[in-house]
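Running this now, will post back.
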Amino acid sequence: MFDAGTYAGKVALVAGASRGIGAVTAKAFARAGAAVVLAARDSQALDSVAAEIRADGGRAIAVPTDVGDAASVERLVGAALDSYGRLDAAFNNATDGPRPAPLADIEPEDFDRAIRTNIRGTFLGMKYQIAAMLGGSGGGAIVNMASVAGLHGVANLAGYTAGKAGIISLTQVAALDYADQGIRVNVVAPGPILTHHLEAAGERAQSMAAASTPMRRVGRADEVAAAVLWLCSDQASFITGAVLPIDGGQNAGVKPPQMYQQGRPMERIAP
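Update: finished.
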């Protein structure tokens, strides 16, 4: 992915780092030489990820954090500065939302939870991360976690899609606000990725998810991590305010399924 010197001397913060894409990305930052600050609500899982990084020769601290609480996020960023003296990169990956249901069946408090974690959590993360970056090394890069569901509507996911669409808008505003101050802010928008949620859903759900992508497969957490590290690196130094789909082609449009015989298409099925 990146060699061990890519992030040497740098400090990266990963919110939502206790499992899945966040944990894989935190480990990737550490392997590339960064000191890593891990944040999530699950302190036990967070400590486990930090221990794995340290056992592999990396540097990491775990800071239990509620991304929707301003004081908690301020403490998180303060811990990064206290421990390592700077902040160069941040990945705001924490997410939450109600179970899939038609909009009118969603309880208001469940919708509020999605907005609190996704939109407020991303806002608070950037608020304190940007201040730390400006006050320290004078620059940095932030990547926020959205979804292809933030780019277009998805039935039965009102809270989730609203939260992810809000993250995209916040990212674009932050990118504009700080483009001339050395801060780059981008957003990744994954499609179906094989994380613990999709693994738990079983083989049928995984097959359906794969069939929904033009590539006819689900993505991997390390593929998302690679994109995040690239966006935070000097290789992406002229990129800010961008939305990067990691979706096997979903955002490009519809690729109808085909029936094949001896490798040749027999019939196209209209969407």
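Residues 37 and 61 are 5 Å apart (CA to CA). More later if anyone needs it.
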